[in-house]
Amino acid sequence: MEVEVKLRLPHSAAHQSLSSVLSPFLRRTHFQHNVFFDGANSELSALRAVLRLRFYGEDPQTAERCVSSLKAKAILVNGVSRVEEDEEDVDPFVGREIWANPNLIGLSDSRVLKRVKEEFGVKDESGYVCLGGFKNVRGVYEWKGLTLELDETLFDFGTLYEIECESSEPDKAKEMIEELLKDNGIPYSCSKMSKFAIFRSGELPL
């Protein structure tokens, strides 16, 4: 079970302000390309599940890392997300082949991709589809014992700004992050939708 604090920043100015405040604690920056898949008959989404391939690098065609992720039964309440998640690194070349031909999912030896076929009943004759995806620029900061992830998510229909923090004590982490934001006059709100849900809706939440 992945448990994360998710707080939304309303605009680029808030994102820039927080980035400046956290700059002494920056450890790395990730350029991510997220691509999503489902069965052709919506077998995964019907069970509140989603399959994602995430490529790390400015260009997914030359990315040196790719991670498959199967998420299910996501709940996001009061800025805290809880979701069942299973992740596995896959060869980036294999990931790019799957992106080009989603039906290769059913032929993969990957543990996570085998789960998609075996647990969600996707039939070989109907196959898989690529739903598309979006880019994300993520700054990773180590701050007061927390790993903070500051995201700038680039959808075709707009840009979302968000800060996330995975924690076994989400209420405590959320309180610390909110205090940081308030002390620096940075506006925020609790996130109400996952990035994938926003992507599928086709518009930024109000």
UniProtKB/TrEMBL annotation:
Gene3D superfamilies, A to Z: Hypothetical Protein Pfu-838710-001
SUPFAM superfamilies: CYTH-like phosphatases
Source organism superkingdom: Eukaryota
Molecular-function GO term, any one: pyrophosphatase activity
Matches recorded under Pfam families: CYTH (PF01928)
Positions of the CYTH domain: 1-203
SMART domains: CYTH
Protein known as: CYTH domain-containing protein
Gene source species: Chenopodium quinoa (Quinoa)
Organismal lineage: Eukaryota, Viridiplantae, Streptophyta, Embryophyta, Tracheophyta
Gene encoding the protein: LOC110722859
